[in-house]
Specification:
Blueprint: H1 2-23, H2 26-81, H3 85-194, H4 206-234
Helix pairs in contact: 2-3
Amino acid sequence: MSDNTARMRTIFRTKTSRALDRMEDPRDMLDDSYDQQVRMLQQLRQGLAEVATAKKRIELQGQEMGARYLRLAEQAQQALDQGQEDLARMALQRRSVLERQVAALREQYAALEKQQANLQENERRITERIAAFRIEKETIKATYTASQAQVRVNEAVAGLGSQLNDAGATLDRAKDKVAQMQARAAATDDLLRSGALRDLTAAPDEDLDWQLASGASRADIERQLKAMKDSAAASGATPKGPDAWLSIGS
C-alpha cells in the first residue's frame, strides 16, 4: 500500500512539474532572478554603509582619545614642573590606560577597514555580474519573444494550409454536385422532350406541337436525303460556285 502511495505521489509531482513548466514564462523567471540579485546588492550596499558609519565613529573616537592622550602628557609635564610628582604620576597612569584603549580601538578600526575593503570588492564584482546578467537576460527575452512570434506564425500558416486543403475539398464536392445537377437537368430535359415526363408548367397540348415539329423535321431531312440522291443520280455532283448557296434548302 505504501509503495503504491509513493508511486502515485511521484507521478502526481511529475505531472504537476510538467504543468508548471508549461505555465512558467522564462521572461518572468529571468526578471524575478534579476530583481532578487538587485535586492541582494542593495542589502550589501546597506551593510557597506553601516560598516563605513561604524568606522567613521571609531575614527572620531580615536581622534578624541588621541587629543586626550596628548593633553595628559602635557598635564604630567606641568605637574612635574610644579613639583607635584603624585599628580604627574596620576596623569601618566591615565595616559597608560588610554594608550591601551587606543590600541584596542586601533585594532577595531583596522578590522572594520579590512571588512569595508572586502565589502567594496564584493560590491564591485556583484555589480558587474548583475550588469552582465541584465544584458544576457534582455537578449534571452528578445530571443524567446521572437521564437514565440515565429511559433504563432508557423501555427497560423499550418492552420491556413489545413483550411486551404479543406477549401479545395469543398470546391471538389461543389464541382461534383454541379456536374450531377447538370446531368440531372439534361436527363429531365430529354424526358420532357420525349414525353416520358410530363411538364406540368407547359401549355396544354404542347407535347403534341413538339412531336409534330419533330415529325416535320424528320420529314424535311428525308426530303433532303431523297433530293441528294436524285441530284447525284442526275448530275453526279453538288452545285458549286459563288451562287451555290442560293440553292441550299430549295
